[in-house]
Amino acid sequence: MRKIRNDILGLTFLGLIGYLFQGSLCGEAKITDGDTIIIGSQRIRLYGIDAVEKNQKCKTKQGRGW
Predict the structure, then answer these.
(1) Whole-angstrom distance, CA of residue 22 vs CA of residue 14
(2) Report field, pTM of the whole predicted structure over 0.85
């Protein structure tokens, strides 16, 4: 029972820290490539997106460029 209580307290503490240090981004969003946007001075990489980067050379399984 004590472990569950400590786990709940720990998660509550982490949630409180996140809430206290949250921020907001306002402004025009600019897309720089397939997985990156810029809002104001913040550069944001989208997690879990695997997009071709600018000037990246891609090849097929046979080694031909496309």
Answers:
(1) 12
(2) no
